[in-house]
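Q: Convert this sequence to structure tokens.
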Amino acid sequence: MRLLILVTLTSLLTVALFAQQPSAPAAKISGFDARALDRTADPCADFYQFACGAWMANNPVPHDQTRWGRFNELQEHNREVLHQILEGLRTPPPSVSAVERKVGDYYASCMDEPAINALGRKPIQPELDRVATVKDRTTLIDTIAGLNRQGVRALWSFGSGPDLHDATMTIAHVDQGGLSLPDRDYYLKTDAKSVEIRAKYQVHVQKMFELLGDKPEVAAAEAQTVLSLEAELAKASLDRVSRRDPKKRDHKMSVADLQALAPNFEFPRYFAAASAPKFDTLNVEVPDYFKTINGALATIPLADWKTYLRWRIVDSAAPMLSKNFVDEDFNFWRQYLAGQKEIQARWKRCVAYTDLSLGEALGQLYVERVFPPESKRQMLNLVGGIDQAMGKDIQTVSWMSDSTKQAAQAKLAKVVNNIGYPDKWRDYTNLNVMRGDALGNLRRGAAFENQRQIDKVGKPVDRKEWEMTPPTVNAYYRASENDINFPAGILQPPFFDPAMDDAVNFGGIGAVIGHELTHGFDDQGAKYDAVGNLRDWWTDQDIAEFEKRGQCLADEYSSFVPVADVHLNGRLTLGENTADNGGVRLSYMALQDRLKAHPAASKIDGFTPEQRFFLAFAQIWCQNITPESARMLATTDPHSPGRFRTNGVLVNMPEFQSAFSCKAGQAMVSQKACRTW
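A:
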């Protein structure tokens, strides 16, 4: 989504005939759950505790997770559905289709742990050997291109995307990249925790080099080299808050101009080695990064760059190597950094990797099982109601001029709604999957996707293409294409349940729809026009009023403390907080329109429709989280934690306060309520 906290063809009958069905069908998750309530809490003092208190008490974070919430419950449900499908394809009968066999071979290869353990580091030896042959900057550039093509992130990123000023066409993009820790600030901050993390990271890198066969003293020096080199990349990188402004990532130039900016990168050679089509212009997202690192390519010894590349190879491959690599990889990244106590069962990891590489093939089978046409029809009806509410909201806001309202209405009218799954499924014919080659399949999957993206350069944008696979529990808005997208994976309880009353569905999936729609008019989306071009379409006065309301939200959320000594960054989370606040308000407006046309029971489970709406909204955010993960997400995640996504919205809503009879002076009634939409 932008919603989260930034991730399927035969008939059902054919799957049911396969020999290996691992377990009973995944249990259905309930929608609104009265058992989740903490009735000892005052809803006007802490509504999140009232709505989720019992759920949180009864749902600690499982040992194989870093947080556990309603999203995670649905993810586990979907994963079990995929598990059943994949186990059926693991040893399929001869009659299955080529794409089913490809999916089954990928999953079976990942699951063959004994064979993977027997190989040790052999699967990455050819990549390591190639790095060893690097003898100058030219061969270094060729090697980086080869590694990037197969999903090994090193030094920078290269791909494609819409032209920011002609959203109908795809152009090449280059961007900063190559860091291992979650954010540039992990390398730059000097507080005690950041210093500790870097020390632990250095030890981890050393251990991984030792697993490659390097002597401890050599590995220790190599780890220091990696940390020092990545710190240089971090210093040159644009920070997350700045990156949220698309105008700061808008630098279209010719290839010749880029080469002049950073001659040591030898970009024409890199693009050729990356199998890119010929192109003359591209967007350079952070020119200063390339200008700065250009000097580093000349001054940092070649041996250090080779050490860095060896690290990137083993780090990216570790989860698909033998157990000693897997365990060390887990110990740092998941256990230490995120607080996960146990590694996930192998089948869970292999389901995720299959979805990563063959998501639309696997997604077709998922959709057949869980997303009937009637669900899509109901979703389109919900979206239509919230579209209408957005139109009314734009027309009635007091701070926007008539000319800007007219442009906003034109943009709203052009929003494309994509529901459930693509109109056309992706063709995986050219992806070579070999049974028994787990890492090779992962690398070839990354290379397939990388080439698919690069081949778009110079071609019209495909506005019906999806960026998430159908089983994904998420949704998103694309400003450059002005569309909202809801995979079938999130169109399940507790978000959407056709058996539930309108109030619950509007509070759940309705708030998500409103959230994504509001992204078109948040502090990022508002910079794009109706066709997706980066263009100023607001009056200066309207922009000033808009930014004043955004600052109110930024100040509000910056006051929230998710863990011990860490505050949220209200500027980092501004877009998501704007979408949360606007989305709930839009969905509530749409519910009121629905109730006028179709009156509901005065109370269900003891709550009015309005109360059930707000409870359903709060309950999609019920969660528990490890302190380690909460700390990391406060730095890296543009979304606020569940408690603040709930209370932070509702303190600003008189409609909520009326529904629960909250009075001025109580905690859930803001003395300075913020509202943009």
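Strands lie at 67-69, 156-163, 166-176, 252-254, 281-284, 416-420, 476-478, 483-487, 623-625.
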